[in-house]
Every structure is written in C-alpha cells, then in structure tokens.
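INFO worker-7 received task bundle
INFO bundle size: 2
INFO processing item 0
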Amino acid sequence: MSVTIKFGTDGWRGIIAQDFTFDNVRACSQAVADYMKQAGLAQRGLIIGYDNRFASEDFASAATEVVAASGIKVYLCPKSTPTPAISYGILAKKTGGAIVITASHNPAIWNGFKFKTKDGASASSEVTTKIEKRISYTLTSGKISHMPLSKALDQGMVEYLDLAPIYTKQLAKLIDLEQLRQARLKVIVDPMYGAGAGYFPMLLGRGAIQLVEINGERNPLFPGIQPEPIAANLAKLSALVKKQKADVGLATDGDADRLGIVDEKGEFLTQLQVFALLCLYLLEVRGERGAMVRTLTSTTMVDRLGEIFKVPVYETPVGFKYVAPIMMEKNALIGGEESGGYGFRGHMPERDGILAGIYFLDFMLKTGKTPSQLTDYLYRQVGPHYYQRRDFTFPEGKRQTITKRVSNSLPQSIEGVKVIKVNTIDGFHLTLADTSWLLIRFSGTEPVLRIYAESDRPARVERLLELGKELARV
C-alpha cells in the first residue's frame, strides 16, 4: 500500500506496521541524507536518537544504516534519549542536524520521524517540503543506500554517543543544580514510560530533595494512558502527590520535550498557567528581560506580563517550527505553546520539558511558595484565567466540510461580547472584547479536531467550548 509521507507540526507520524514501516523510515532517512548533501551539511555529521516506543531502537538502526551508507557520519544514541538532549547535542557537537525516532505524545500504536536542524530546532516548513519531495522521489525510484550497522561501526561511519553527560553539563550552566539538590522538597516525577525516565533523579538526586519516580520502566504499551502530560493521563500522579503529601508532581511526555505539573493538592495546572508562571519566574525571580513568543493556542496572560514588564510578545501558528525562528531572530527569553512545550534563551530554540520542570522547582525554592500559591500570586498580577481543550476524532474525508461549516457560521458576538478579531493563520481563532478567546483547529499530527477556550471564569470556558462544538458539529 502506497503511503504519502507528510510532515506535520513536528515530523511525520504513522501507525506502526501500517504506515510507519522500515521501508518508509529508510526512505525518510535517505531523503534527509540527500537534503543534508544539497544544503552543504553532510560533512558535519548527524545525530540519530530514539524514544521508548515499540522497536524505536530498530528503526533508529535502520535510519543509521542508510545515512552512513550515504557518506554521512552518524552519532547514534546507545539508549533511549530525551529529544531535548538530542537537540542540544546538535549544538554541542556542531552536527548538521538530528533524526529522532519518536511519536512524542501519540498513542502506543504510533511512531514517528522528526528531523531537527543544525540550530537544534524543529525543521521549518521550507525544509520539510524539500525533504518530502526527496521522500516521494525515493519511494518511486527505490534508490536507498544501505550499509550494515556492524560494517558502518567498523569503518568509523557510526559512533555511539551518550548525550546524557553533555546535556547535564549544559543544564548545570543554566541553573544551580546543587542548590536544588539540597532543597527541602518532595517531588514525584512521572516520565510516562517515556525517554525522560531517570533524568530528574540523575540531575537532582544525591541530596536533601526527595525524588520519587513512577512509570519509569520501559513499557511501549503506555498502559492505561497516552503519554501526553495532561490531566486525563495523570490520575496516578495526582493521587500519589496527595497520598504522599508531596510538594509537586512533574510529568514529561513520551520524548520529554513537554511538561505537565500537578500542584501540592493533586490538582493539574493547565499548560497555559505553567507557561505564564515560567514567564513570571524568568522576569521577576531571575530578573531577565527579552521578548516572549507564544503560539495562538497559548495564554493571553503572557501578553499581560509583557505589558507589566515592558517586553514584547510575538504570536505564531501552532508548532515550535514557527516559534523557533522568532526566538532566534529576537533572542527571545522564552517561547511556549499550549501543548506544554517551552524553550528558553541560552539553551536552544526548542522545547525542553526537563529544564522547564527544573526551572519550576527553582521558582518554588526561591519564593518559598507552593504551586497553588504561585498560581494565586500570578492571578493577583494578571487576573484569573481559566482554560480547557476538547479533542474530537473525525473521518479524514470530513476535514473540508468541517472547515467550510465553521467558516460560514462565525459569530460576530458571543453572549453579548463582541468578537473583535478573527485569526485564520491556524484554524479559526476568535478574540473577544473581554480578552476571552475560542479556537477551532485541526491537529497537525493526528486526525483530531481540537477546540480551545480561555476566559476569566470556568463556566464561561465551558460555554465557549460548547459553542465551538456547535459550530463544528462534531
């Protein structure tokens, strides 16, 4: 069965054995190798890493055999490695980029193929379009290079590279890890069976801080959850935080580039709250200044903080491939998105769920406040903001019908409040005069319609979500 391989907001993803096959991974790898040659990057080499999903290490080996046979040296991760460690590894080793075998937060039946550029960032649409054309050619021609991994190792075309020490050294430059190790905090960590397992204990263990890790073993079935750090998947973490009277719960997604936080009461902090809190931490506690970048699915609390601290805020479509260029151009302090991905200046223009979690712990330590107290403190400055997202699966053939239906029925006001702006750069984003907003958009990585809303009252958020559902008729 022929497959059209298209890169979404961050890479290509497919169902294992149906779409995500060894043949298709080899075709993608050949296309990346060809792109690197055309871009003059082949001599810099390429990192290849992978997550804990089913056969990820085998898909990574297949990719390695293709790239090495194409004359490009490969630095192959010897074990499951967080995507942010791989992304930083690009900068540390000055490679031409990286291939990461991961489907991030998708369900267990999926796997994926990400390409990170020489900047350590998600590949732009311009780059992925070039790669997609090469994939199409490769699938049609069947011309794929191959060299057995053992031979590539013997010839020096492949070198195993453990990125954990390089990544740890980088984080130690950004934050006083030893001070955090001595913090009188109890932290429960949930890597959600993903590549982030063991990283918080490795970085912060051997001190006064108490770290308890759950779901740290490899289980490609992700039993009972989808490895996305949102409330629906963090019931176990929430219950354990309450039971053990922990100070906070931290969760990372399947490849550890996203963060979810549970407060000391076992309540999930929304990704929008966390993003605003991280902005406040950088601006107030660390005293840093610089532009902030957010996707249109993220919170207007960031805009309010921008006004308070007199720093600019830039809005982009969904996906860090849009956030990263602005971060680099403006030397931005932070970039963030609704999915729980946050990137930081001085590190790389890419998401890092592990560093975000460490920064949040430092916020708690420096202020002496619990997560719920930090949220209250934030609200005293920017006003209360509540948020929810609802996801609906739909038949792929209905995409155009839903789009047309929503486009033809957009309201001019909602509950008497005027719609002052309609943004269609990524779905339909309606901004109301009271700064509440509603967004209807399709996921860029799976057949899901997402409806988002933020307002000053939970009940109003619910009503906005219901209106979005009515407009889309899902």
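INFO item 0 finished
INFO processing item 1
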Amino acid sequence: MFRTGFPDVKFHIDQMVGEGNYVATLVHGEGTQTGQFIQFPPSGKHAVWRSVGFFRVEDGLIREHWGIPTCSAS
C-alpha cells in the first residue's frame, strides 16, 4: 500500500522496547505521494508521519499488530 502511493517511502525505527511476547515501536516515515494511495489520487505532496506500533510475537512471527499513526503533508 505505501510503496504504491509513496514509491520513495522510508521508515526509521526511533525506539523499540520488548517484554515477553510483546514489542512496542516508535517509527517515523516520509515519502512523496506520486501514486494512488488507498482512495486518494497522486498529489505530488511530501508527507511525514509518526506511528506507535504494538506487536504480539509468537514462534518468532508477528501474530498481531496494532498501530496508531499521525500524518502531515506539505
């Protein structure tokens, strides 16, 4: 989904904490929307966003993910 709308997308993990079967991340990303993104046509705008993610890991695989994104465009 991101690669279609934002072919130049880059993600960076700012923080990662784990305990038991759970991992929490603070991530920032950015890219230019030159392709279709969900129902939004290409805008040519550069977007920057941050997200908090929580993952449940089982047998070395991510079994569940919950995320809270924020976004701004310029």
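INFO item 1 finished
INFO post-check item 1: Helices lie at 2-5.
INFO post-check item 1: The first helix runs from residue 2 to 5.
INFO worker-7 idle
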